[in-house]
Specification:
This protein is mainly alpha-helical. It is about 65% helix and about 5% strand. The N terminus is likely disordered.
């Protein structure tokens, strides 16, 4: 099983034998967190509370897999670190916004996130809603800035694709699907669609962002998108397995909530063994997409292994 360690007072899941978790992923965490702190707005009056809540949520830890995907895909396409880390920070802003809102009593109703009180428990529900809103809008502010890329067409494409990943055909639609699907029987096709919307869409954007920044040709862009597509679904299955088998301490949130709420997952549909087999297959498939990139994609291959090892 992955081991729980603490990095600068934050819960962080790693496999101690996995070089990725100890080196490349750890380095990306530091770069992205440093950039996030610089990008957070400064208050002049009572709005300080919402900024405090934003920082609390952003700095609570986490694996930072989505920003890592941005950073590594950008390297493959020869993108400078300064541009990549800004997009990575924007991705982490929207991911954190989604977690804040997911935890609200009107949504998944969870009092714990990343091993500490959820934002609405640490502050209050109104502050949590506003902090999530502010992080979402900050992400688009970051992407629209000339510092992210000199070419306005690249910035517009990043904004457009992120918006689609977050909207009714992506994360928001997936969350609605997830809430309404409780205690309903779903087949594999609908569960796959739910998970690709709720979790996979932002992961796909994170992988494709490097190709957009690097103005990659279609064949190479398609390859990185295929990798992220398969990794995203495997990631969600791994999360479902951890929810089923892990402890609250290990996963940083309340364990067993999906089953208690009657949520439809691959695990609930086919069982633990078949779900793990499916995740293994997706990881193998994802790695094949990377053959075109050779040794440049080694960290992404390691990431795929890290994701599946979380649930082993």
């Amino acid at each position: 099983m992955p081991q729980l360690i603490w990095m600068r007072d934050k819960a962080f899941m790693i496999n101690t034998d996995n070089d990725l978790a100890q080196t490349a992923l750890g380095q990306a965490v530091e770069q992205v967190e440093e950039k996030l702190l610089k990008l957070l707005p400064k208050a002049v009056d009572l709005e300080q509370q919402v900024i405090n809540a934003m920082e609390y949520a952003l700095m609570a830890g986490g694996k930072r897999i989505r920003p890592f995907l941005v950073m590594e895909s950008a390297k493959i396409f020869g993108v400078g670190e300064s541009a990549a880390v800004r997009v990575a920070a924007a991705v982490e802003c929207v991911h954190t916004y989604s977690l804040i809102h997911d935890d609200l009593p009107c949504m998944d109703d969870d009092d714990m996130r990343r091993g500490q009180p959820s934002v609405h428990k640490k502050f209050d529900e109104a502050t949590a809603v506003l902090a999530g809103d502010a992080l979402l809008t900050l992400a688009f502010e970051i992407l629209s800035d000339e510092q992210t890329h000199a070419d306005a067409r690249v910035r517009c494409e990043l904004i457009s694709l992120m918006a689609k990943a977050l909207g009714v055909n992506g994360m928001v639609g997936g969350q609605m699907f997830d809430l309404l699907a409780e205690n309903q029987e779903l087949d594999k096709i609908r569960i796959t669609r739910l998970q690709r919307m709720k979790t996979g869409a932002l992961i796909v954007f994170s992988g494709e962002a490097g190709a957009i920044l690097g103005k990659a040709e279609s064949r190479r862009r398609h390859a990185i998108r295929g990798y992220a597509h398969d990794v995203g679904l495997a990631f969600q299955i791994a999360d479902d397995l951890l929810d089923e088998e892990g402890s609250s301490e290990e996963i940083g949130k309340t364990a067993g909530k999906d089953a208690a709420a009657g949520k439809a997952t691959f695990v609930s549909l086919v069982g633990i063994d078949q779900a793990r087999t499916k995740a293994d297959m997706l990881i193998d498939q994802s790695v094949k997409h990377l053959e075109i990139f050779g040794s440049k994609a080694e960290n992404l291959r390691n990431l795929a292994k890290f994701i599946i090892n979380r649930a082993s």
